[in-house]
Amino acid sequence: MKFTDGYWQIREGVDMQHPVDVRELKENNGKLTAYMATKPINIKGDTLNGMMLTAEISSPIPDVIKVRWVHHAGVKQVGPEFEINADANHTATVDHDEQYTTLTSGGLQARIRKSPTWGLEFFQNGRKMTGTAHKAAAYVKDQGKPYFREMLDLGVGEQVYGLGERFTPFIKNGQVVDSWNEDGGTSSEQAYKNVPFYLSSAGYGVFVNHPERVSFEVGSEVVSKVGFSVPGEHLEYFIVGGKTLKDVLDNYTKLTGKPALPPAWSFGLWLTTSFTTDYDEATVNSFIEGMAERNIPLHVFHFDCFWMKEYEWCNFEWDADMFPDPEGMLRRLKERGLRICVWINSYIGQKSALFQEGMDNGYLVRKPDGSVWQWDKWQAGMGLVDFTNPDATKWFKGHLKRLMDMGVDCFKTDFGERIPTDVVYFDGSDPEKMHNYYTQLYNKAVFEVLEENRGKNEAMLFARSATAGGQQFPVHWGGDCSANYDSMAESLRGGLSLGLSGFGFWSHDISGFERTAPPDIYKRWVAFGMLSSHSRLHGNESYRVPWLFDEESVDVLRYFTELKSSLMPYLFNHAVEATEKGVPMMRAMVLEFPEDPTTHYLDRQYMLGENLLVAPIFNTEGTAKYYVPAGKWTSLIDGTTVEGGKWVEEQHGYSSIPLLVRPNTLLAIGSNNQKPDYDYADNVTLHLFELADGATATAVIHDLNGKPQATATAVRTGGTIEISYEGTDKPWQVVLRGIGQAAAVEGAESVQSQEGLKLAPFASKITVNL
Predict the structure, then answer these.
(1) Residue range 653-670: mean pLDDT, rounded
(2) Catalytic annotation, pick one of 480, 520, 562, 603
(3) How confident is the model at residue 115, as a pLDDT?
(4) DSSP readout, 436-464?
């Protein structure tokens, strides 16, 4: 929200008060409290009839500093609030000198300037990252309504990323972003997943700890500042530090919650009924049998909205006209080895038998007059489940458990953005704050019932809406995109932005949700989709089975589905990393190569894990134009190499995509290309790419519970490569990519191949002299 009229003036009807004169600075157990007048105080009389602003500065965990601005502290604070994971045993240190007081937390410092005027700067290991000074922080009255605003420095050449899953330009500089969940598709400034956290290319993050609307002015009100404002009498934000951008995400997700580990089966190919299509068990079987007849591995089948009867969403009952024997149908599908997902949302249509029950028991959100809030959008007369009522949550979860007892494995938690503000919640929550926060309670309830009944690492959602902390309940997908290249590119931008907002796992509707893609787009999107964290074929008015597009689509889908399954030892390792460090599986290039300024602007390619570069193709000509960082990279598909540090332009057929392996990589490729959940260590092949003299490459192989099962390490010293493998006695192999022969090999039998020298070990350590 802009309060100024250009740089010099404020808008008409706006009164703005800034901290100016530090009157007192108190320290208590690692917490600083600064009391500041909003005008210079020269004599005692100046203290009368004036405003005082208070800044509280503390540290909840190492490398994170909290700043809380307060005007009137006596105003009642009504929840909800984001859950913050503070370490009760952590205390920041404080140092004083005549002009400055410095609070230190890990490598992060907040330095308060006491005179001649207020100022606050943040340093990481001695390097200034950002700060706030005169006329930046402000208490504002706009047409009599109170707001708090902060403005943090934005350096020359500094880029801002994140703020949730945003489909607007990847770099947020110059944009006005309101953190307010809306059902706006993927082609506007609206977003399903608003997260009031941004990541800076300068090496820090900022989390504004307010679930209500936060208005960001990213170099748009003052071009050298990131401004953010909230209504009310206080403002709280965290500066998140770290040695690298990955460390910043690690610290941010320590603060707001780490992602859970989705089950391994969820990384396979998902096929859905689509949305408004006609289907029954015979239709579903025709899809599944068609995939099997064409040897396309299929792992999850999803039933979209019309598994329930129209007008009755949600009643959690199968439409008996279409599915007369749901238990038997699910049993038969699971006998084929499929997992089952069904669509739900948190709305109860008036025609649903559950509406009356929910109304009678106070399970639905109410209006101020005590009546149930209803409208006719989406479902006629629908109400909204009130998850602030523990009994309503238990009631909702009970219906999901009944479906799980039938054989349902997970739920697509659709919607959660259309949340009214003219309502009253059971626990008295502020409806403005609940607008964004509602999705957190909704997805948490569904995730909990899955975890309670399936166990840890077996729970996963397919969720559309989210806010800060929502990363704890994966997976999230990109919403209603269209069947064109523009929408494919905007979907990727949204996913990369979400990944830089602390979310580890993300998916999208392969070939677009709205309308039907031509075969060209379908095949290009399949390659992108199968090289994403999670992979789902889904649409609106038409089915998404490949043979309805063309026969080549069948081959393309088979190829990339099998490729993803074979990459699961590598991919699951990075899934575990996402849960431990908060680093996304699909990551913007800047996250891996912050030292390369070219990567700061890239939003049409990404790293899949640490070692694979993916550049989707966004045109009918099959032209890939992408940037390769320094080093000698190898195509995983055809084995060709490219020297990086430059842009590359190539032509690709439909069964190809730029998929490059980073130099100094030990890539674990599995022995099974038919499903994602298998024993990754059994007959794993370790492909070693371009190991430099003095370099070390490591691969960790996990079991399906995310526990390390084996570790492989390759070290090169001059012309000698040593490869060790520990943790299991299961068979394994090695391929030295690009190396045709060796002078001597110890610990393995060797044979030449087109890919490189293949080694069959008979010891846990191999030595190769080139």
Answers:
(1) 98
(2) 480
(3) 83
(4) HHHHHHHHHHHHHHHHHHH-TTS--B-BS
Following DSSP, what letter does each residue of 282-315 receive, concatenated? HHHHHHHHHHHHTT----EEEE-GGGSPTT--S-
Two structure tokens written together for 398: 């009970």
DSSP sequence for 68-120: EEES-TTSPP-S--------TT---EEEE-SSEEEEEETTEEEEEE-SSS-EE
Catalytic site includes residue 480: yes
The number of beta carbons lying within 10 Å of the beta carbon of residue 548 is: 13
417 flagged as catalytic: yes
**Closest by alpha carbon to 52, among 69, 32, 33, 38?**
38
Question: What residue type is assigned to position 566 of the chain?
Answer: S
Residue 81 annotated in active site: no
The model's pTM: 0.97
Statement: residue 766 has pLDDT above 90:
yes
167: pLDDT strictly greater than 90 = yes
Active-site option among 414, 509, 562, 690:
414
> Which residue out of 121, 417, 458, 509 is catalytically annotated?
417
Which of the 8 DSSP states describes residue 49?
T
Average pLDDT over residues 555-561: 98
d(CA 487, CA 29): 52
Contacts of 465 (CB under 8 A, 6+ apart): 181, 192, 193, 413, 415, 416, 417, 439, 442, 443
What's the sign of the alpha-carbon dihedral 555, 558, 563, 564?
positive
Contact between residue 19 and residue 118 where contact means Cβ atoms under 8 Å apart: yes
Q: Tens digit of pLDDT for each residue in 289-325?
A: 999 999 999 999 999 999 999 999 999 999 999 999 9
Amino acid 594: pLDDT:
97
